[in-house]
Amino acid sequence: MPTKILMVCLGNICRSPLAEGILQAKLSKNDFIVDSAGTGGWHAGEKPDKRSIAIAKQKGLDISQQKARQFSAKDFKEFDFIYAMDMSNYKNILSLAENEADKTKVTLILNELFPGENVEVPDPYYGGVDGFENVYNMLDKACDVIAEKLTK
Ligand code: 4NP
């Protein structure tokens, strides 16, 4: 059975699609399934934001075929690890947890890089292109740590 990892942000169009593409590229497709979702459903069915698609392409990743969807309580049963981009996402995910086992699956993603510091991946939606490169670089480093943990 493959290990299943879910990346979660608010809209599932900026941050978590990048996190999905970045981690997927670091892991074997036979052994891991990486997906993403948003705590909000407004963008369900949409492709990632053009700026996320562009920064991914610049780094050699194609995320253009992803489709946004809303996180739901069923995801706790489906996934082994759930990574939140910021504290708001983290709290919204936990509010849907049904038991302790669900809760222990959820981690703020940058705590993999900076343990215990609760550093957030900033929402780049209302900013410029620089914000997307910054988010990409943070997620790339965090996903290096996650991939190493999951494969050793
Ligand atoms: P994301 O960014 O959570 O990284 O996908 C956002 C995208 C859209 C909105 C907010 C955040 N929005 O309010 O529509």
Folded structure, characterized:
This protein has 152 residues and is an alpha/beta fold. It has one domain (3-150): 3-Layer(aba) Sandwich (Rossmann fold). The chain contains six helices and four strands; from the N terminus they run βαβααβααβα. The chain has a four-stranded parallel sheet with strand order 2-1-3-4, with helices on both faces. Helix 1 (15-26) links the parallel strand 1 and strand 2. Helix 2 packs across helix 6 (129-151). The radius of gyration is 14 Å and the shape is globular. It starts with a strand and ends with a helix.
Structure, briefly:
By secondary structure, this protein is α/β, with parallel strands linked by helices. It is built from 6 helices and 4 strands. The chain binds 4-nitrophenyl phosphate (4NP).
Output the keywords:
152 residues, alpha/beta, Rossmann fold, 4-stranded parallel β-sheet, 6 helices, 4 strands, globular, binds 4-nitrophenyl phosphate
Uncertain segments are none
Largest sheet: 4 strands, parallel
Mean pLDDT: 98
- Count of distinct structural domains: 1
CATH superfamily (homologous) name: Response regulator
| Rg result | 14 Å
* Oligomerization status of the protein chains: single chain
**How does the helix and strand content classify structurally?**
alpha/beta
Straight-line N-to-C gap = 17 Å
Shape category: globular
Strand order of the largest sheet: 2-1-3-4
Binned, the helix content reads 40-55%
The hetero compounds bound to this protein are:
4-nitrophenyl phosphate
Order of helices and strands: EHEHHEHHEH
By DSSP (H or I, 4+ residues per run), the number of helices equals 6
CATH class: Alpha Beta
> Which fold name is given in CATH as the topology?
Rossmann fold
Question: Approximately how much beta-strand content do the residues carry?
Answer: 5-15%
InterPro entries: LMW_PTPase, Ptyr_pPase, Ptyr_pPase_sf, Tyr_phospatase_low_mol_wt
Organism: Flavobacterium haoranii
Enzyme class: hydrolase
Pfam family, one: LMWPc
